[in-house]
Amino acid sequence: MHLARARQLALLEDFALGLTDGLSPLQCCHALFENARRLKLSTEQRVITHLIKQLNQGLPLGPALHKWFSADLVMLVAVGEHSGILEQLLHQHQQFEQQRQQAWQQFWKPLLYPLAMLALAFAAIYFIGHGVMPKLAVSIPESQWPMLSRILLTATHSFIIPALLLSVLLVVIWSWGPPLLINFGWRWCRVLGNYGAFLIQRYFSAVLLLQTTTVLMQAGSSLDKSFAAIQRYGSASLAVHTFDMRRKLAQGERRLPQIFDTGLLSARMLFRLGNGSRNASEQGTLLRVASYAALDATQALTRLRTGLQVFCYSVIFALLVVMLGGMGTMLMQLTQQTSV
Prior knowledge:
Number of domains: 2
Number of strands: 0
Subcellular location: Cell membrane
Oligomer: single chain
Keywords: Cell membrane, Membrane, Transmembrane, Transmembrane helix
Pfam families: T2SSF
Low-confidence stretches: none
Family: Belongs to the GSP F family.
Shape: elongated
Order of helices and strands: HHHHHHHHHHHHHH
Membrane topology: Multi-pass membrane protein
């Protein structure tokens, strides 16, 4: 069972601080275990005990984290251990994680209200369509039902409302690409990604790829070796892209925009890669682009959030028109019939 994201990050941050102080990975784990035992943090004690056992057996630390840590953090630890730059990768990821958490808050908080209103609108139209309208419609011949009332009754007694709910869910999945549902190792996910799907997952995976590659190259690794390390220890989604990038390198491609053009990076990021100085090294160009990548992802999320807000409010407006208009016109028709 995974730890909460905040607890994963806190544990790795404390581990990185120990490495910065000159402790070995095993000494860091012992120090963390003593603090967890003193404060009676049972979950942290179990995690660290398992890590100590791994290290005492001479096994790598990365694979031992799968049970409790997210795939991206496991990859960073595994790549950092393999390359001998675990401390640098963890410190680099701390900055990225702060930017990502801020971007997530700015993305989801403004969407909570329209999503809640959308849920209330669906509940209200279902209740009125099933509980109120049939009682009103009994007194009026079907041929005399107003158009909006007919639409309301038809929508709530057919698959239209479930279809609308499904469309909202599909729009969120199309925009987000939840990691538990979407994996770019699957061909159909890559095909949909080429048509603009799963922007959130793709953009943040691109930031992770750029920043990890940059830190590896700063430590003296070549571009191909950096991709090989990410491919070996990263998720299946990243492995698909790094495999394609390594294939291009093997074919003699040396232009960064063409190498990274695998459907993961946005056109804006590829544009920045292509605009590097002719005298700049691959490492220098990647470092410059990686520093802007999180900002580009945040701006893309802002545009996506605005689009989702417009979509939600449009659906809410349509539901209210049908619900209020359908019930109102039916009541007017019933009143006129009664008065006659």
